[in-house]
């Protein structure tokens, strides 16, 4: 069987570079080419010294990369993936977008939160939301896959079984998320200047983060109702990982053991979701550099409130790893291929 | 005017040592003596090398310290402050407890959360809850002052003006707090072993932290109703500081500007509470090693939910600094005396 | 071809657990069993939650593990590997020791630095020093392999080409090393308590670290003369990685370009040693969780002093990864098998 | 007695802002005005939120600040302090420069390392090098004071007693320094981007750092001979502090106890230099946010090599604190005034 030829557009950013790293280790992928507009002609190892003497590829023009690829991954600012998807679609290439352009079903949401319009509405009809644990069947045949955002991945996986049970007030979800700094990307900013960020901690974009409609969309699909969340992201002075602490009010009395049994059942065959034993708590420490998502369940018995905690590596399950998981599904490879790293605990 | 002679019982732990450090810099305090059972006879600078050639005091017997002091501070595990308070009370010494024994009005709460009973109920009638911004008048004449917990301080100061306005569902408060590791103290544990904690993040004691009844007690006093909270503390891989992110559902439409005006008014004369301008967010970076508490107000307009963020240094406003603020009030000194350090931003 | 059955004695410590993690990912290894005296009967995933649902092994008795293994790795305090090696030797098992018992040729050095005597001198004659880049041929047939210490690995690889050239004062080497905290292991101590270590930095065991004779032994073999070093390790407030900054005085005028050419040639066929281009500097950031060793060359022209900088992951090339590299060599597998992870840059 | 009116030119950078913070806490200083070209008209608390509601000053024009000041501090890129010094000198203001323009006696050194020429040679004759422990008498009457660099401060204080004893090979000093990131300043760069720097460690500017001639100049004055050093700075992933590990070869047999006695004597009356007891090691943890410099002495007995370790807060004793110490000396105040903070150990 021939290897899949994969190309990465926007490979100079963090999500792109992580994807390159992971694709390089995939046994059935040939990294056909990588692209960066800003660093055209430079070697990726000049930007990311860890690749030195391992990944000896220069950044090429976009069209050159597409031409050599069976699957094209893109990691670009929003608004730039649509024209690229069009090009790939016309050439019969599978397109997996790590950006935000193909995540929202409702153009009005995109307009409201991203302040742009769809240029190619017909493409969006072809696109599927690439969260494998929830939409695996759609992904198998899709030509355009919108890879989920990092926060939405951590939140949807934590809530999915609960949303399906119809036992909470779905208009009253509070989601308090905390992310490492790689989520902010390679670009320099005052807020990620080391002496500023180190030994600091604070929320940001309170009630105003662009992942909000994406989260509500997925949760709404799961429960079949409108969902409303308060979503507060925070920036952690660490490199990688997201923890989401989620508060859901039960409509009736709930026994956490029963809920736990439902979770275990729901994720029984999922290789990348680990429902932790009752009494344990998800910690972003334990899946760094891997594609796992840990979920733990807790009850605030005094308030009949379910508290869920989930943890992922924002760069892997929250970006490049999940994109490869989608590729594996789409191309008929075992879903864990190239993603079976054992996480370290220290 | 003669200096206040201050003694610290339990000075070998983090809260005690921080108190020693701050007392040493207070212009009207003479540090009369310090005590530690475990390190009796040793110099405090042997435990805390930063004090070398500055604070040249050995740990002494408890009684010796009390005898030399006008005010006795205690930083001990719960259950141990009560007999000490009795002793001080009999000798006419002011007693300021940094532990949990004198924080709860209702013995039933103490029994439920700390699994101990009051041995000296009459002492608890003399005790006041030492949160100066809310109970200043009581503190002025108290002989026993229960210094608030670190989390409760950050939460009560954030919510106080709101609780008094009677515009939220006080049975539905969600409080997601994050603390640096000094809050866990000097004692070694797997959870604070560097390679374990560094680059990690997770909640702990979900719905089960002992500060819960203390928080509910203060909030209940403020609004005159029963309050119920979900309180989730998290451990941050940093040294100092607490951020509390608080979610309160408004009963009616709220304009954040009006609420902000109320906050500014409420704290107008408070030297240590800074209500940040709308649009700014409290960050524990900006009051480290000082007694400030920053509070910022935010609205999730889509859900008519008020989101408050507060930040303190858990070791100062959350422990030793607040204890000195209480001492200043009790002894008639300017409230900011010895506490007017300017915080650094880096 | 049948997989190698590998057993790990002392698998509950950091080096042992890292070895378990890496062995699990090796395509031609079956992890036959793991041992820990302290945690006998417990699951390793209870100690290291990152292994949950992946490595479902309990700690077993030593003899049980040995019986099932073709190769036995040991990660034990010094003095405990010798009897184990004897047992393995008698049973015809290959023994790879991550401890210090089989690193020193000269028993007098062992006595001086480890305060113990050899119980089984004949075993030491069978043992080889498992630094593959320097002693590969010996490793191929050895039944006992002493895996090098973490510091000595970083130092020997940095200096090897230089030592062979006979152009420095080999009695005047200064080695200033800095290590992450995983090197201190799983055991709790004041010095690795998070609030103590975080935002701190200092040397330790100045001129008295046990790796000193091991370093001098290897360097001496390379140049054929007695070597004397000043070795100062420091503890970095990070998790993984060692940087060694090495100062060597040239006996004659040296051109760094020529020296660089010698280094490139020396390591031309080594898959795990990367000689960085002149102008670049080795940084422990760029080989975390992998088996690479980066080396960079610098000249202090004003003093005709060669400055070498090397960087490794102390847990991989400095422990478990190198042990697997030795296993691969010993069992005739490609040397990089199971070790071809691409390091991340963030 | 009237307070000293102090002005700060270049107050928007880290060194300037730290100076502002410290001057604000000085009981006999009135902060007359602060300047920043880039942030003219803005409030300093907008840049440094920790100052909110405490230091309510806008950045003003340079001349306006000078006019209001008795002493003018400058924290500017090299080359910009000279014209400012000229202006202050003409107006009879004391000028304390935190930059590099007035540190080097020999213009040739300045030309070689800073690539600029002196425009006002006569000013340099008036300037003194403001390292109080070594040049206190000169400072008392100087009108222009060149505040030492951070690395040179940590190194000169560690070596001063030794240099005066004439017992080492002064042509063979190796200095391996490690600094926190505030030393790199407020400006954004790839090397201080959080995800890049966090969990990293490496040297930089090996054998080429501009502090080299300044260090050699001071050491040379102390021993009366030419001194040659290899100086290698490293960047630590922490905020504040410098540790210098210094290797000096003894010319004769040395007893560390005797050397220690010399050090204790040398610094007996210095309030800010703490010679640690033999057996202890200087750690940058223990003087953060204060003006102390800790020095520890060690012997590598096997090589008759003296190893010195010193630690300072680069922003305080390495910049703003030392500048205030110089001001205190120059204006006849007690040297510790405004600088008597007790450092924390956590």
Automatic annotation (TrEMBL), chains A, B, C, D:
TM helices/strands, residue ranges: none
Catalyzed reaction equations: N-acetyl-L-glutamate 5-semialdehyde + phosphate + NADP(+) = N-acetyl-L-glutamyl 5-phosphate + NADPH + H(+)
Subcellular location: Cytoplasm
Molecular function as annotated in GO: N-acetyl-gamma-glutamyl-phosphate reductase activity; NAD binding; NADP+ binding
Primary enzyme class: oxidoreductase
Coiled coil: none
Similarity annotation: Belongs to the NAGSA dehydrogenase family. Type 1 subfamily.
Name assigned to this protein: N-acetyl-gamma-glutamyl-phosphate reductase
Phylogenetic placement of the source organism: Bacteria, Bacillati, Bacillota, Erysipelotrichia, Erysipelotrichales
